[in-house]
Structure formats: structure tokens, C-alpha cells
């Protein structure tokens, strides 16, 4: 194996380094986050840095890039206090990927990519129609990460929509069967495959 050091990374061109580094943390969820501005204009953008933060209460976070790079999602969440998280399905790859383009203020990505809003009476922000797992989230905290200007956005689950047939008796959700996709790096999309399910680990001594 070759040892890659920070000096090796700095020697790479910007695009090559971004691809390389974004693959190091492994496979990540492909998630479309929907927000709305105070006037009701929807924004949808692809995020992959999603993290489970706790089950009681149910907290899920994501990393938002610096405001100058991706301002709309964070600004909308700050304004309304709510957002939705939607797993990307197989037929949505190209459209989901296109939402990462920098559309200007006053423009909804829904009007320019092949994704449709799904309004549900249980929640104030739309979901993505066809997403196999749809989560309605309430803002808990926005934590600046001073080292690189990004933000950890923490939400609490308000409602979750998914097929009951994908939920096992013990609560395990088979996301591969549901059709949720994974992302690797900046542009690779993968369909997960179930390998093995193990029991709760306990000490052997």
C-alpha cells in the first residue's frame, strides 16, 4: 500500500484531491434535503454527509458547506426551522445529482430537474415524490465548525414515511430492499447489497 500524506494531497490538483478525499470516509447515504424559503419557494439539494446522532430523541445531522458555497439550504432552515430528508432511489440518480449545481436565488431545482414535490398533510415542508424513505425534520441546532467554515445541522425527527414491509419485527429497516442508494466520493452512486445481519454484541469474557 502507498502512504498518502498531506504533502501528497497538496500536490494533487483541486478536483483530483476533492475526489480522492471524499472517497476516504467510505460509502455514504444519498439524501435529498428539501427546504422552503419564507415565501414558500422550495429548494432541493443532494447531501451525503449524513450522521445518526441519537435514537431518543431521534436526532440526525448533516454537514452543510460554507454559506458562500451552498447558501440556500441553510438560510431556509434558519428561516422556517424545518426540512425534509429523502433517500435517493434508483430512477432518481441523474436528477438528484443535478441538484448539486448552483442554481441562483429565486429558482427552485424542482423546476429544472426531473424530481417532483410531494406535499403531505402531516408536515409543512414537501418531500421528494418516489423517495423510498422520507423524513420530516425539525431544526434543533446549527453548530459552526470553525476549522473549515462548515456547519453541523442537527434535526429531530417529526415523522417518517416508508413501506411497512421493509421494517423487520426487531425494527431493522432493510434499506437495500427499500431501494435506497449510496454515494462514494463526489460522483459515484451504488446500490447496496445485503451481506449479513448480526445480533447485539455482548462481551465474551
Automatic annotation (TrEMBL):
Keywords: Flavoprotein, FMN. Residues 30-162 form the Flavin reductase like domain. Gene3D superfamilies: Electron Transport, Fmn-binding Protein, Chain A. It holds the Pfam family Flavin_Reduct. Belongs to the flavoredoxin family. InterPro entries: Flavin_Rdtase-like_dom (IPR002563), Split_barrel_FMN-bd (IPR012349). This is Flavin reductase. Its cofactor is FMN.
Amino acid at each position: 500500500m502507498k502512504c498518502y500524506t498531506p504533502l501528497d494531497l497538496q500536490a494533487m490538483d483541486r478536483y483530483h484531491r476533492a475526489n480522492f478525499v471524499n472517497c476516504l470516509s467510505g460509502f455514504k447515504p444519498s439524501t435529498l434535503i428539501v427546504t422552503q424559503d419564507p415565501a414558500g419557494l422550495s429548494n432541493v439539494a443532494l447531501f451525503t454527509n449524513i450522521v445518526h446522532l441519537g435514537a431518543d430523541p431521534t436526532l440526525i445531522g448533516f454537514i452543510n458547506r460554507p454559506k458562500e458555497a451552498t447558501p440556500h439550504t441553510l438560510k431556509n432552515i434558519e428561516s422556517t426551522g424545518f426540512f425534509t430528508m429523502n433517500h435517493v432511489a434508483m430512477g432518481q440518480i441523474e436528477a438528484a445529482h443535478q441538484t448539486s449545481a448552483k442554481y441562483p436565488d429565486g429558482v427552485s431545482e424542482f423546476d429544472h430537474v426531473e424530481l417532483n414535490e410531494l406535499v403531505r398533510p402531516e408536515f409543512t415542508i414537501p418531500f421528494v415524490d418516489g423517495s423510498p424513505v422520507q423524513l420530516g425534520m425539525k431544526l434543533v441546532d446549527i453548530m459552526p465548525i470553525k476549522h473549515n467554515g462548515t456547519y453541523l445541522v442537527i434535526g429531530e425527527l417529526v415523522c417518517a414515511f416508508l413501506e411497512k414491509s421493509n421494517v423487520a419485527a426487531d425494527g431493522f429497516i432493510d434499506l437495500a430492499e427499500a431501494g435506497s442508494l449510496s454515494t462514494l466520493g463526489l460522483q459515484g452512486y451504488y446500490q447496496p447489497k445485503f451481506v449479513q445481519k448480526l445480533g447485539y454484541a455482548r462481551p465474551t469474557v
